[in-house]
Design brief:
Strand order of the largest sheet: 3-2-1-4-5-7-8
Number of strands: 16
Number of helices: 8
Order of helices and strands: EHEHEHEHEEHEEHEHEEEEEEHE
Radius of gyration: 22 Å
Largest sheet: 7 strands, mixed
CATH superfamily of the largest domain: Formyl transferase, N-terminal domain
CATH class of the largest domain: Alpha Beta
Distance between the termini: 58 Å
Number of domains: 2
Structural class: alpha/beta
CATH architecture of the largest domain: 3-Layer(aba) Sandwich
Amino acid sequence: MTRAVVFAYNEVGVRCLATLLAHGVEVPLVVTHEDDPDEEIFFSSVRRLAQLEEIECVTPQAAELPAMAQRIAELEPDFLFSFYYRYMIPPSLLALPKSGALNMHGSLLPRYRGRAPVNWAVLHGERETGASLHYMVEKPDAGDLVDQMPVPILPNDTAGQVFDKVVVAAELVLARSIEPLKAGTAPRRPLDLATGSYFGGRRPEDGRIDWRQDAWSVHNLIRAVAPPWPGAFTDLPGGRLRILGSHFRNEPARHDRPCLYVENDTIRADCADGRRLRLLQLEWQGRTLDAAAFRDCFGSHPIDMGDPG
């Protein structure tokens, strides 16, 4: 029987671990993370799945990973898999499995290597992304590609909706790769890193809207960081207005400057390129705003957004 040690977290981790087990792969050890109490946990628990399957599950810190080498070597795994595991796995561990160490990444490699690949793809207005299964090397997201599957990004998809598609793609890519991996016949295609891109993590402050940008760019930011992520925002006198959803139709703006206003019981944002957005979800001082509440808070005149913040 093929044996694998699995490093996993997030929904991709749950679905890919379940896929390995469904295809008869023996998993004697799962390595995952403790949930961050300051993070909104919107995904399923790898630890819970491991408990249900009666698999040993550990949650080491990054500095503790090298010390796991002896334990993993004793298990004599054929493969080591990483499914949305957040720490860099040291080379000393990657060298242990007899048939290689593989990672599932949430983009069409070599594009969008690094952190938050789905969010970055939406932010840049991409029309597709996907899931890629590849061999791990010391440099992140740089090893040979085994397989990948694209998923579409529609103009009004949020990053959360795209992530749900990527989860399914990851499960399908892994499912069709397991038997070739077992047999040693899975393809290995070197990645041309020069044609790709690498991105770092994102912070809540990166959700600040720059109203000097065009409507499509503003919309892409809003949907790239929409809940369950922290959301986009703009600062107004009296507080911070959180803009958590928008809809883009490539409509002409009503005013000749960036501004927020109510029209026909909908909240609108005119942008610097003369196009406008419909704003779907707003929060102000802990209160959700519909069109009537927006008027109550800010009056009936447009709010000038000439300040980029």
